[in-house]
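Q: I'm teaching a short session on how sequence maps to structure, and I want students to see two examples side by side rather than one. Could you give me a first protein with its sequence written out and its structure tokens following it? Keep the formatting plain so it prints cleanly on a handout.
A: Of course. Example one:
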Amino acid sequence: GGRHRIKTRSAICFHIKGGGSVRSCRSVFFHMCAREYFCVMATQLITAIRPVMFSYELQCVEISTTEKTVRFRLLHGTDTLLSEDYAPDSQGRITLYDLNELVEAVIGNAPKGAFAVALGSAAVVEFEVLRCSVGMDCTAEEFLDTRFMTSGTDTRTTAPGRYELLNFYERETAHEVDVMRVLRNRATGEITRESACLVPAGAYSPGTVMSVEVSPDYILAQGDTQAYELVEYTVVCGNRKQRYRVTAAAAADPSVIYRNRFNVWDTYHFAGTLESDPQFERSQAWMNGQYVTYRTQEVMQFKAMTEPVPLGLECYVQDVARSPEIHRLDAAGASRELLTVTDCEIKTVNDDDALNVYTLTYRFADKVSAKAFTGARHRVFDDTFDNSYE
């Protein structure tokens, strides 16, 4: 009950007034730290929130808590998108579903957006979200640092006159975009390999999604290459690589530009058969003793076929099929009519000798779906053939 002075082995002294029990400084310090630790860890995010995430990763967010209720806030800049109090289940878990839909609605047609989450009075955790409609086997950081924002990394086939583009996202360091070209001399057949810069590193800032044209004609035009034809080329940006093989493929009809799984523009060229199938709905009645048609509604449908697609490249056709926005692409790379996919056949067989050909059925989005395009059709024979046999 009096005034006591205790010396511990750590040579730290203190006194306790009153009849309470005497504790060492070390035990008091541990008790205070443990109390603070459990207070902080009472509510925590089980789902990892990394600095950069794909939107599909937010379809299920789990929280662990020992509290009766937890306030969860989702922020976008100065706007509060969601602020609710949630009660945990018997396991002390709170599960929030479909936050990806809310985030994607806020991002809209932009490729990414900045968001933040907060639990109760804890510090706000800021992060960036890039749209992605397909689950990946790696984190967003790993993917974005090593790959272009396109469906696959296998060699793509292209042809002169086709429009191609690539998108990428640099998080921290801006790299220049180079192209490694393989050229063949038209006169001698000699093969030449050389590189050219497409985008200097200082032309853009980190933290932006960049789009680069990589069309064969554009790649060939970089430098004095009039005496050469392009055989293949590889686009390089940091650790990213995308190889293209140039062939004398038939003219594509249609060529489309569409928003891929990352909601950025990509192109695809249907080089197979194109089938048109107009559907008519006629309204008819007896008038003045005659059975006449007084209204005709027409829906022009098309079925576009791909050329045989190697295994590993079917992901591009799948992206076209799931895309929310597809436009017909003209030769200059300009988007034209909006297309609506009504059906698709994209079954893939992994046999070694399989020739996978895919079809997409579509129509023009306009109410008047029948279109007439001026200009001559592609000729069956080239200019070296005797025209009299055409």
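Q: Perfect. Now a second example for contrast.
A: Example two:
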Amino acid sequence: MSKFIQMTLFAGLVVLMQSRVSCVITPDNNQQELTMARGDALGDTVSVFPELQIGFSLPLKDSAVGITSMPPIAADHAVWLNQNRDTLFLRVLGVLEGNTRYVVRLDSKVEAENGSELKPEQDSIVFVTHPAESRQNSSLLTADTLVDRMFGVIEKADASDYFVPRDFNSEAFYIRSYSQKIRMVMKTADGSEVVSATSGENSDTLAVSQQTIRPYFLQVESGTLEAMQRYEIGVVHDP
């Protein structure tokens, strides 16, 4: 066999191998299926006013996408698709039910740019909410029992929420604002103020001294005298 023929065969073999490798590592979008999954890092259990991200495996053809849930999301909420049409945002503007498992599905069939379809019954996302204040806890007599953490909203500027710890041996409690400022006040059974803490962008803690008279209560109020102040209150396990 001549040297020219050998070089020609070798070159052809190289081209063939490169072609086969390219076919293996280059994804064919026309063969991909359309699926969806949670794209945020909030975990399986979320607050009662979360902002969730639902990612699609392929860009959608149309930006008109809606959702439905069980139980229904009665709170005000907004749903929109990002510019790339591959991430759906669900922002809860009101308050979801606490300690509740939600299953979210599409409200109608959607289609990807490659023609792949996803029907509501084919996929879903699931999340559970943390406990929420009862909204009847506006006095010492109707205070909610605080076990670990709870979420709530001060709906009126002059309103307050009250909590009574289940364990009076807790060494500290924290308050975190999701709006502007939230103030937490420790009070004795006769309503006397013991100590207070105010949370802005970061959480603040309130320590319990050995001299604090039991039982005591935790009052949460707006730190800016504005309505619809979202907050999280909880026990500090490692003060």
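Q: What should students look for in example two?
A: Point them to this: The two ends are 83 Å apart (CA to CA). Also worth mentioning: Helices lie at 3-25.
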